[in-house]
Every structure is written in C-alpha cells, then in structure tokens.
Design brief:
This protein is an alpha/beta fold. It contains twelve helices and 13 strands. Helices cover 39% and strands 13% of the residues. α6 links the parallel β5 and β6. The structure holds pyridoxal-5'-phosphate (PLP). Pyridoxal-5'-phosphate binds next to α3.
Length: 380
C-alpha cells in the first residue's frame, strides 16, 4: 500500500484541476498582453480568476497579484515594504517558514531592518498577544512591520490573525501574514481581518506548483519587485502563467465549494489517527494542539526515543508511507527543524508531521498505525 501523508509539503493535483489545465493548454495559448482575440481570451481567463479570488476574500480584484507561489509573494510583501514604505523595524517570530525567515534575516544582515523576534511562544508556538503588544509599544516610534504567519506548517498551530491585525492597526504597523497553510481550508474575510498582505501557493490545495498570489491591501503603495513588462498592472513583470492560474482557480473552487464537508472529513481522519496513536502506541506525544487552534490538516507527533530515530522517515517510506520530518535533528539535514528547536523540542524523540487531504482514507491511517507498531514492535 502507498500512503501519502505529506500534504502540508504539497498535494496531488485534483483530477478536475488537471482537466481544467489541459483544456486551457489546448485552447488558450495566447499571450494575455496581446490585443488580438487569442490574447483577449487569455486575458479574460486571468481576470475572471482574479475576480473570483477577490470575491473569496471579500477584497477587490485590483488587490490580487498573481505570483510564482508563496516564496515570491512573501519576498515581494517584505522586500517592497522595506524598500518603499520606509520600514525600519520588523517584528516576527522564530517559527516562520524559511521564505519569510530567511528574507528577514538577509535584510537584517544587510542593515536594512532591525529584526525583533517574539520570544514567548505558547506551548504550541502560538503568538502571545501581550508580548506582541509590548514589542509594538517599545518600537512605536519606528516605521514598523509585523510578519506573523496565520498557521504554522510544521505544527499546525493557528495564530489569532484578527487580533494580531487589530494590534497592528492600533500601532500603525504594516501587517503581513503568510496564509499558505490556511487558504483553501478556512474562510478569510479580509473586511473583518485588518491585514495588509496575505500569500498563497496553489500546490498546497491540489492546484499546480509554481503559482500563487499576493493580496496587497489598497492602502499600501509599493513598487514591483520584478521589473519587466506591464503585467499585473505594472506590479510584476513577466508573461502570466495562465495554465497555472486556471488550475489554481479551479482548485480554489473545489476547496471552497466543499469547505465544510472537507473540513469534517479530514478532521475525522486526523481524530482517528490521534485516537489510534493514543490507544495503540505507548509513549506517543503530540506537538500539535489536539483541542483547538490547530489546522485540521496537520498532526505533529513525537515518538518515544528509539535506535532507528535517524532512519524513521526512511523506514516509513520503505513501508510506502510518505510523511515529513518534524524532528529537531533529522537524517539528511544538518540543522534540523528551526521550529522545534525554537520551541525547545530538540530531544531524542523522533518527530513526524503527518498531514492530510481529501484523498486520504481511514484504511490508510490504519495501515500507517500498523506499520508504526511494527517499527516499535508493539504487540497486537
Ligand atoms: N509559507 C508556508 C507556510 C509554507 O508552508 C510554504 C511551503 O512549504 C511556503 C511559504 C512556500 O511556498 P512555495 O514553496 O510554494 O513558494
């Protein structure tokens, strides 16, 4: 049996998305910037997609910019804000995705910003609002940006995006939220959430790789990061990835049209795994919040120390099970997970992130548990 439980890393394309992209590839090859009918058809497809996405987040189409994914979108939000808005101090956390973390570190190393990191994460890495407010207060005389992710990709922990946004508003700080792991799984009404930038990557929800978008609140005026043609209303040069955009829009439609049903289904799979791990695997602990405040798609599990810790993922893989290392010092990586290290979870317990999608089944979870029991030689 082959079981894919690494959906926070990437997801398989939905068949409907493949179909949609295939038909666009066959029928719409025009350059969206061309004025003839081929170009106009491609342009219209892109603008319909933009309008649909804007509707999902209750914003205007002019606030959505297509990118090559979330790494580009996060870079654009941060780098262009620092360059064009006079941002001198950025408040962030030590458990951001590398697309944010490394960008901020680089800017800090080059003396472009003062980087201030939150220290007092909660048990699951959640932002402490009191600490955030204290930092905002301490730096209120500087031009401030806050970059804090909505949901953590390793632990699943969800941050209070609305409350963070309200604090940013109070202190006139620009707020960038990496929403890669929550888009397509949660409703995000940006009229209710005071945020300046959110980011998205389509391959996290059964769309294609290499495409995503950046939302930029109308009040923010920045210049492009990628200069070139006048695409994306002069904000991102480069011929648009129309196949990717069409695929992303289809994937969003599939997700948002079935949001509640999918949430229930995936939550029940995750709960099934939690129940089985608790009852059948002695010594297992969880790094994800099991009660509330966690993505229903992610479960970070800490297993008892063992002599095959370095080979844990490899052994799972040999058994046909794909998952990710959440371990502080994992095989193949000299540094380990910066997220677990930041939270002080860097002992000798192997940590594995299992992440789920609509295509997983209970049988796959049962199979995974059986294999884990075999690895630990737990008696049936
Ligand atoms: N942010 C988060 C939270 C992610 O999980 C990822 C992907 O792993 C990214 C950003 C970067 O996305 P991409 O590699 O598609 O640009």
């Amino acid at each position: 049996m082959k079981v894919y439980l690494d959906n926070a890393a990437t997801t398989p394309l939905a068949p409907e998305v493949i179909q949609e992209m295939f038909s666009v590839m066959q029928e719409k090859f025009g350059n969206p910037s061309s004025i003839h009918s081929y170009g106009r058809e491609a342009r219209s497809l892109i603008e319909q997609g933009r309008k649909y996405i804007a509707g999902l987040f209750n914003v205007t189409p002019g606030e959505i910019f297509f990118t090559s994914g979330a790494t580009e979108a996060n870079n654009m939000a941060i780098r262009c804000s620092v360059r064009d808005l006079g941002i001198r101090c950025v408040i962030s956390s030590p458990i951001e995705h590398h697309a944010v973390e490394h960008t901020l570190q680089e800017l800090s190393q080059h003396g472009k910003i003062k980087l201030v990191l939150l220290k007092n994460a909660g048990e699951f890495g959640e932002v402490d609002l009191t600490e955030l407010e204290a930092l905002l207060e301490a730096h209120k005389n500087e031009k401030l940006m806050v970059s804090l992710m909505h949901a953590n990709n390793e632990l699943g922990t969800i941050n209070p995006i609305k409350e963070i946004g309200e604090l940013c508003q109070k202190y006139h700080a620009v707020y960038h939220a990496d929403t890669v792991q929550s888009v397509a799984h949660y409703d995000l009404d940006l009229k209710e959430i005071p945020v300046d930038f959110i980011t998205c990557s389509a391959h996290k929800f059964h769309g294609p790789k290499g495409v995503g978008f950046l939302y930029i609140n109308n009040r923010i005026k920045i210049n492009p990061m990628l200069t070139g043609g006048s695409q994306e209303r002069n904000m991102r040069g480069g011929t648009e990835n129309i196949y990717g955009i069409a695929g992303m829009v289809k994937a969003l439609q599939l997700s948002y049209n079935n949001l509640e049903k999918e949430r229930q289904y995936i939550t029940s799979l995750r709960q099934h795994m939690i129940d089985k791990l608790k009852s059948e695997m002695p010594g297992v602990e969880f790094y994800s919040d099991l009660d509330h405040n966690s993505l229903y798609t992610v479960l970070s599990v800490s297993f008892p120390p063992c002599d095959f810790a370095e080979m844990f993922l490899f052994t799972l893989d040999i058994n046909g099970i794909a998952a990710s290392s959440g371990s502080a010092c994992s095989s193949g990586s000299s540094t380990g997970s910066h997220v677990l290290i930041a939270l002080g979870k860097n002992g000798d317990r192997p940590a594995v992130r299992f992440s789920f999608s609509r295509y997983n089944t209970r049988e796959e979870i049962d199979y995974t548990i059986e294999k884990l029991k075999e690895m630990y030689m737990v008696k049936a």
